[in-house]
Amino acid sequence: MTIWQFLISTHADGLLGYLAVILTISVLNLFWFRRIDRYPPAGKKPFVSVLIPARNEEKNIAACLEAVLQQDYPNIEFWVLDDQSSDRTAEIVKEYSRKDHRLGLIEGKPLPAGWLGKHWACSQLAEHSKGEYLLFLDADTRLQPHAVSHAMNALLHERLDLLSVVPKEIVVSWGERLIQPFFLWAVYTVLPLGIARKVQLDWLTFSIGQFMLFDRKAYIEIGGHAAVRSDAVDDLALGRRIVRHGFRWWLADGTTQVECRMYHSLRQVIEGFSKNYFAAFRYNLLIYGFVFTWLFVVFWEPLIALLLHSIGLRPEYFPLEKAILATALSLFIWGLVYARLKFPLYLALFYPLTVLLNSLIAVRSFYLTLSGKSTWKDRQLEKPKIRFF
User: Fold this and answer.
1) Which residue, 19, 174, 198, 380, is most buried by CB atoms nearer than 10 A?
2) 54, 125 in Cβ contact below 8 A?
3) Counting Cβ atoms within 10 Å, is residue 19 exposed (0-12), middle (13-18) or buried (19+)?
4) Is 140 helix (H, G, I), strand (E, B) or coil?
5) Which residues contact 335 (CB under 8 A, 6 or more apart)?
6) Residues 239/200, Cβ–Cβ less than 8 Å
């Protein structure tokens, strides 16, 4: 038997083996992915600065402020930076600041060369703040009244320098429903949180910019947002820097305390993930191409094999019983993860379409990066250096 014949004959078994691995990780993460509202109250309440960068966020900022200003945490301040908005963002923040002295508005300075807009805004916010702990939020994030208290309990109990949480991602339009859950599904199925918590390796970190709570000293020592000023996925980059500098990171379940609707249309979803996907792989073309190709094969090939069997072609390399098992395992894994992350469970039925659409966005992300046409918030992103290995 040649090597090629061996690979073909064991291909279905390898695919089933991969599904078994990600199923195991997903089940273990049911226990490792701890909710922030399950931690005991902390004995101290250090000063926290809640920092919100905002650029043309008049549709989001009022609801965001309504939520954050209701926090029950006693030792807290709130800052919003208006990043040269052309809408009513600053005016709305001023209205709220007149009602609550804890809230302040910062007029953002012009964007320097070599910086991305949000990173520059966050850096200015950190400079203006006085908190021992810095909580960066996106303007489309919504907090429950106890969210900051629970997050601080978790951070202090775990002795962390960075706590990020997975929020409940709100998906309304069909573009959001079919595309957006994919990236959290992918993280949940491949990142063994219990192991990541113990070993603290930079390549086993994942942070979400919608909610990032830093110990101020650690944030300053890693260089803050200035150290990742041109990185399109600053949340991932900051998490990696925290671990590389010997500080402690953790990703917790915030789905009961934090909500976020990232996008509001198919176009916004495509633009957002086109910016992020290739950057999340540090522009490594080999790994990037392999991952998306493999995921497409894993979740589409069993379906194609089932179709071929149904019309009598019977591909020998993928027996019917293995195609049925692979499809059943796939559906179960998607359903399990969606239920845990509080996505509508019925969306698991559409997992082949979710994989297909995200694979197409991955191709688009590579093309825009290669051609230097990536943009975000009406600003051009710097063309990065692509790595082939």
Assistant:
1) 19
2) no
3) buried
4) coil
5) 345, 348
6) no
Characterise 116 by phi-psi region: left (phi > 0), alpha (psi -120 to 50), beta (else). beta
d(CA 242, CA 222): 6
Rounded Cα distance between 281 and 70, Å, is 38
With vertex at residue 206, the alpha carbon angle to CA 371 and CA 168, rounded to the nearest 5 degrees, is 100
Determine the Cα–Cα distance for residues 52 and 139; give it in Å rounded to an integer.
6
Q: Give CA–CA dist 170/264, Å, rounded.
A: 10
| Residue partners of 205: CB distance under 8 A and separation at least 6 | 196, 236, 239, 240, 242, 243, 249, 251
Domain ranges (residues) in the chain: 3-30+280-380, 33-167+208-264
Contact 382, 230 (CB under 8 A): yes
37-to-45, 258, 308 alpha-carbon distances in Å: 16, 11, 49
Residues 33-167+208-264: name the CATH superfamily.
Spore Coat Polysaccharide Biosynthesis Protein SpsA; Chain A (3.90.550.10)
**Distance between CA atoms of residues 361 and 279, nearest Å:** 13
Q: Cα–Cα distance between 198 and 12 in angstroms, integer?
A: 34
Query: pLDDT tens digit string along 197-216?
Result: 999 999 999 999 999 999 99
Rounded CA separation 173/194 (Å): 34
Q: What is the mean pLDDT of residues 42-58?
A: 96
The better pLDDT of the pair 264, 137 is held by 137
- 348 vs 331: CA distance, rounded Å: 7
Q: For residue 387, what pLDDT is reported?
A: 78
